[in-house]
Design brief:
Elements lengths: L6 E6 L6 H10 L6 E6 L14 E4 L16 H6 L4 E4 L2 H6 L4 H12 L4 E6 L3 H5 L3 H16 L2 H5 L2 E4 L13 H18 L7 E4 L8 H5 L6 E4 L6 H11 L1
Parallel strand pairs: 1-2, 1-8, 2-3, 3-4, 4-5, 5-6, 6-7
Helix pairs in contact: 4-6, 6-8
């Protein structure tokens, strides 16, 4: 990556959307020249979205390479569809599917050995923030991946998304100052281990929308957003893309 970190606007449709919405985005999404735009789509739509003006990403991958794992999707399958990114460790996967730090770390190791760029998600629930343990909680999530991945983490990892769980889908948003505080901690902690971390892209992932994008994206260590609800609205998503540029 260049000395100046290029902004990344990543939409995460989760289990939403359809072919008609995808066609709307293909036709109407305005991708700025000075920022990267990514849509992380449900599996059935990944093939339909390839070779467009935006990058495509998956919302998860299996920790297994192949085999008898009904319902799982491997990294090789994603590569066959020209998927460029994959979200790993999203809080909804950690909660709904009981994905531990160890499982997330294994998925990260597999992704780093592939040609797909992982977006590692980390972040704290409300009780952790209220107890003042945010940094320790986030550091433990990072340490699990570092222990599993070793030097590959810094050699190939390009993006981390900080997503305060209490601000996902709740309408609550960390203030720009709260978000920057955690982003600054993440960058400082990782840079102490390897100077390359100074150029990792750190995305904010807690109810970023058209109205707060400019203030959040102006922060020193916020290099883009991992956007849920607003990524399903073409007008709002276009506003966020322009804010990133």
């Amino acid at each position: 990556m260049s000395e100046v970190r290029r902004k990344l606007v990543a939409g995460n449709w989760k289990m939403n959307g359809d072919r008609a919405l995808l066609n709307t985005f293909i036709e109407q999404l305005n991708v700025p020249q000075s920022a990267d735009v990514l849509l992380c789509l449900p599996y059935p739509y990944l093939g339909l979205a390839s070779q467009n003006k935006f990058s495509i990403g998956a919302q998860d991958c299996s920790e297994h390479e192949k085999g008898a794992h009904t319902g799982d999707v491997s990294l090789q399958m994603l590569q066959d569809l020209s998927v460029e990114y994959v979200i790993i460790g999203h809080s909804e996967r950690r909660q709904d599917h009981n994905e531990s730090n160890a499982v997330v770390a294994k998925k990260m190791a597999n992704a780093l050995s592939s040609n797909i760029k992982p977006i590692l998600c980390i972040g704290e629930p409300l009780e952790v923030r209220e107890n003042g343990d945010v940094f320790a909680y986030v550091q433990a999530q990072l340490d699990a991946v570092l222990a599993q991945c070793g030097d590959a983490f810094f050699e190939k990892l390009t993006t981390i998304a900080y997503e305060p769980i209490w601000a996902i889908g709740t309408g609550k948003t960390a203030t720009p100052e709260q978000a920057q505080e955690v982003h600054g901690f993440i960058r400082e902690y990782l840079t102490q281990k390897n100077a390359k971390a100074s150029q990792m892209r750190l995305l904010y992932g807690g109810s970023l929308n058209a109205s707060n994008a400019t203030a959040l994206l102006a922060q020193k260590d916020i290099d883009g957003g991992l956007i849920g609800g607003a990524s399903l609205k073409i007008d709002d998503f276009n506003v966020i893309c322009q804010a990133a540029s």
